[in-house]
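A common beginner's mistake is to predict each chain separately and then try to dock the pieces by hand. The better habit, illustrated here, is to supply every component at once so that their relative placement is modeled jointly.
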Amino acid sequence: MIPLSSYLTIVLIAVLFSYTSSAVYSTSIHEDNFLQCLYTYSHNSNSSISKLVYTKTNSAYSSILQFSTQNLRFATHTTPKPLVIITPQEVSHIQTIIICSQNHGLQIRIRSGGHDFEGRSYVSKVPFVIIDLTNFREIIIDVENRSAWVQSGATIGELYYKISRKSRNLGFPAGACPTIGVGGHISGGGYGTVVRKFGLAADNVIDAHIIDVKGRFLDREAMGEDLFWAIRGGGGASFGVIISWKIKLVQVPSIVTVFNVPKTLEQNATKLVHKWQHVASKIDENMYIGVILQRVNSKSNSTTVQALFQSLFLGGVDKLIPLMQEKFPELGLVREDCIEMSWIESVLNLYGFPKGESHEVLLNRTQATKDIFKVKSDFVKVPISENGLEGIWPMFHEDGAKDAFMYLFPYGGIMDNISESEIPFPHRYGNLYQIQYSAHWHEVEKMKFNWIRKLYSYMEPFVSKSPRGAYINYRDLDIGVNNINGYTSYKQASVWGVKYFKNNFKRLANVKTRVDPLNFFRNEQSIPSRFTKRGK
Ligand SMILES: Cc1cc2nc3c(=O)[nH]c(=O)nc-3n(C[C@H](O)[C@H](O)[C@H](O)COP(=O)(O)OP(=O)(O)OC[C@H]3O[C@@H](n4cnc5c(N)ncnc54)[C@H](O)[C@@H]3O)c2cc1C
Ligand SMILES: *[C@@H]1O[C@H](CO)[C@@H](O)[C@H](O)[C@H]1NC(C)=O
Ligand SMILES: *[C@@H]1O[C@H](CO)[C@@H](O)[C@H](O)[C@H]1NC(C)=O
Ligand SMILES: *[C@@H]1O[C@H](CO)[C@@H](O)[C@H](O)[C@H]1NC(C)=O
Ligand SMILES: *[C@@H]1O[C@H](CO)[C@@H](O)[C@H](O)[C@H]1NC(C)=O
Ligand SMILES: *[C@@H]1O[C@H](CO)[C@@H](O)[C@H](O)[C@H]1NC(C)=O
Ligand SMILES: *[C@@H]1O[C@H](CO)[C@@H](O)[C@H](O)[C@H]1NC(C)=O
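With all components supplied together, the output reads:
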């Protein structure tokens, strides 16, 4: 689907020759030489690369950088900035950038939607270039074969929208926030409200196009099953630049049902959350019930904790009510709490768009609420006692909990049936739910990590152990030694590696060692090459 100019092979051989004979680890900054290299090797492309290159002197540099910077924690004047941002339009542009940055000692950061919680797609401590894939967002839907090719720079909102234009009965299992980039999301797994029925986004990938460290354009067959395995959940940025994914679309009913039922502590939230833990991962896989815990103002002008039970049922209300009466009567769900709608409307509803919002809002790549945040994650295998839950609530009254929340996300269903090694994402059988801890601020000066770290430490006895699991798409630089200058040993990296990937970390490192032995594609938490020497 993406044409590749044949001249390129010749160009690449020429460039690669200079690559092997140049100092890959040079620390000097060669911005001018890098640009010279780009212009030299891309003059044959259909569209000139020069219009797509933004250096610090370009008036659009800041707006391009900020556009997909989704965490304002990394938009301050002290945040290290890229020397150059490039928004390629053709595969050959990306091939050229990969080769030229190796030639001139620059690191690259690959950015699709920019939602990385730790800003790793647009921040680096060493001189770097951003490949921003905003122009790679073609989506081709094949209704008959229930599949689609989607380019990495598309957002999941764009994907959902395009699918819904073709069919009311097709959907895709991915995340909730429409501005998330397909590139990073699928690379790290990607889950959403239909994960119990259809699995992760990465479980539904059937082919992919990647450009590797040598600038080669590879599809599934050409990259081989090992690399194809690694890119489906092993985290973005370790193996190459993913250009596009071929995905399986899933069948959704014409009518789905949504409810949002808030319960405060005064309304028995503790008992309800306790019971929910026994229900949510066991109930019919057509049913998703998530819980959002946060501080709210209560009627008496003081604050309390609220558990918002949020649900999507793949079916009509007539089936939902009896199911809830049988499995979770304590919630007291009534018809009036429920709204029937199409699947695409449920995407809008569950993300919080007002009723009647036009579906085109899914095409808007600007997040409505950009702020400063820090996120951590956990997995729960044994229900937490009421006492254990009650120990959480006081923390929500502390200063640090203003605008903070905990999101409890049920697993089970098909997630219990997929083997831990099927793809790199290992958190399957036996996980009742996942927790996302999220702390938010509006001013950098107010930002303090104590609260979220204290909560995380309080939760330790209640969550998965040896390793304490974490989700790579909820990147957390607290959970192990990070790769600062690019050369962390396998042993150091395995501290966070086994939390994200359990036993799959070893295989990921083996794939990495084979496809990128010199560790060109790297960031603070990229998969290490075993070939890499320390101390460089
Ligand atoms: C508001 C918000 C809501 C979220 N909701 C959910 C949710 O419901 N479910 C869920 O699973 N996750 C969710 N996430 C997490 C999200 O899935 C991850 O942050 C994901 O990695 C973002 O992908 P991106 O392309 O937007 O990010 P980016 O920051 O562009 O990329 C993330 C990482 O992947 C690398 N990368 C990006 N594109 C490519 C590519 N084409 N080739 C190779 N490497 C690449 C980057 O270098 C970076 O390391 C949410 C995040 C935010 C900020
Ligand atoms: C580049 O030009 C060739 C020949 O005109 C064409 O076949 C190809 O589709 C073009 N590629 C892009 C990305 O526009
Ligand atoms: C659907 O897939 C089959 C088998 O892979 C293929 O032969 C057929 O051409 C595809 N149909 C379309 C419309 O692409
Ligand atoms: C809370 O639960 C108790 C029984 O466990 C019940 O008597 C009471 O009515 C409930 N309160 C609310 C507000 O639902
Ligand atoms: C509620 O709290 C605010 C600020 O804390 C205070 O100004 C206000 O008087 C209070 N109202 C009542 C009814 O107590
Ligand atoms: C996109 O969303 C942002 C944030 O909500 C808003 O400011 C902007 O006007 C929207 N753009 C369009 C074209 O609707
Ligand atoms: C999981 O496997 C069990 C046993 O094989 C089967 O009964 C169940 O339907 C499967 N669930 C899903 C969601 O595939």
